[in-house]
């Protein structure tokens, strides 16, 4: 995955996006407790700020690769909550 990763576009830091969706929509988050790239403490605090339903998983930054079932389970939980 690292070989195909591209740099972030400068526009990502300057474009106006409007009101944040997390203020009015339900949120769910997977926090990878071994995340050394984004940092699990930062991801957890952002998820709490959004009022997210949080699931913590013993995984690295690419939790969707190493723990796909945990991520799938949370997606399905979110789907059932809004349908």
Can you describe this structure?
This protein is of the alpha+beta class and 83 residues long. Helices cover 35% and strands 12% of the residues. It is built from three helices and two strands. It has a two-stranded parallel sheet with strand order 1-2. Helix 1 links the parallel strand 1 and strand 2. It is globular. The mean pLDDT is 91.
Helix-strand blueprint:
Blueprint: E1 28-32, H1 40-49, E2 53-57, H2 63-66, H3 68-82
Parallel strand pairs: 1-2
Q: What's the β-strand tally?
A: 2
Average of per-residue pLDDT values: 91
Low-confidence stretches: none
What string, H for helix and E for strand, traces the elements in order?
A: EHEHH
Q: How far apart, in Å, are the first and last alpha carbons?
A: 33 Å
Lateral strand order in the biggest sheet: 1-2
- The number of helical segments is 3
Cα-atom Rg, whole angstroms? 14 Å
How would you describe this structure in keywords?
single chain, globular, alpha+beta, 3 helices
What's this model, at a glance?
The chain is α+β, with helices and mostly antiparallel strands and 83 residues long. It has helices at residues 40-49, 63-66, 68-82; strands at residues 28-32, 53-57.
